[in-house]
C-alpha cells in the first residue's frame, strides 16, 4: 500500500452515463452508431439476449459472455505488479555478476500471439540501462521497498476463469471493429509495462491493449474473474501502476505526440465492463520524474460503468462507445 500511495493516485467513481462529459467522442460517436446500424450481425447480437445465439460476427462474443456468467468468482492471485531494486553499473557488479531474477512459470498459460498486422510494442527490460529519463521519485522511500518474490506475486498466469473473461472482452472488441479496416487493432498480447526510477523499477502486466501499426499503445485492457466491488482496492492499485508505467514510457519516447494522448483502460470484471480515463498535468509528470511536489500534483483516475454484458440495453449503448473511442484512437 505504501508503494501505491507514493504514486499519488485518486480514483473517482462515475456512472456510465457520465462518460461523454469527460471523454469527447462528439466527432466519432455518430459515425460509430451509423457503422453498427448498417451491420446486420450487430442487430442480431442486440436481439440475442432472450434467444439462442444467432450466427454472425458477434456469435462468439455472445457465447463467451454467457460463459463468463457461469464462472465462479474465485479470488485472483498476485498483484500483477513486480517491484525490484534497480541494478546500477558499478565496478563491484562487473566483478561479481548478479544472479538472474527468477521468472514465473507461464507454461500453463496458452500462448498469445498478437495480430500480425500490428507491431508488438518494445519495452527495454535491460537492467543495465540507466536511462536519462529514469525517475528519482522520492529515492529513499522507493529504495526501502522489499521486492516481491517472483514465484509468489509477480504476474500470476491467469486462472481458467480469467482467461474466459479476457476472451469474452477481446472477442467483443474485435467483433466491433472487424469490418471497418481501421489503422488500430486490439491485441490479447499480455504486455509488461515497465516504470524505472532511481533505485527501483516495477513492471505491471496487462491483459491486452489497443495499438496502431507502429506499436503505440492507445488503450490498456485489464480483466478479472470477480466483480469489482469484491476486490476494488487491488484492482485500482494494479490499474494505477499500469497507467503510471505507460506515462513514463511515453515520456521517454522521442515521439512527442505520444505524450498528450488520452490514457484509457477498458476493464471487464466478471460480466461487468468499465472504462477508466486518466487525468493529470505537467506537474504530475514532473513529480514522477523528479519527486517534486510543486502544486501538489495527483493523477486522477475517472472510472465509468459498469455496463453489464447480460443487459441488452447496456451493451447496445456500450458498443458504439467502444467503437467510437477506437475510431478516435486512429488520430492520436
Structural write-up:
This protein has 332 residues and is α+β, with helices and mostly antiparallel strands. It has one domain. Helix content is 34%, strand content 19%. A hairpin with a 4-residue loop joins strand 6 and strand 7. The protein is globular. Residues 89-134 are annotated as: Disordered.
Would you list the SSEs in sequence order as H and E? HEHHHHEHHHEEEEEHEEHEH
Alpha-beta classification: alpha+beta
As a whole number of angstroms, the C-alpha radius of gyration is: 20 Å
Main β sheet profile: 7 strands, mixed
The beta-strand count equals 10
Summed up, the helix count is: 11
Order of strands, widest sheet: 1-10-9-8-7-6-3
Mean pLDDT: 81
Count of all domains: 1
Shape: globular
Summarize the amount of helix as a percent range. Answer: 25-40%
**pLDDT < 50 stretches:** 90-136, 138-156
Oligomer: single chain
The portion of residues forming beta strands comes to: 15-25%
N- to C-terminal separation? 34 Å
Summary of the model, kept short:
Residues 89-134 are annotated as: Disordered. This protein is α+β, with helices and mostly antiparallel strands and 332 residues long.
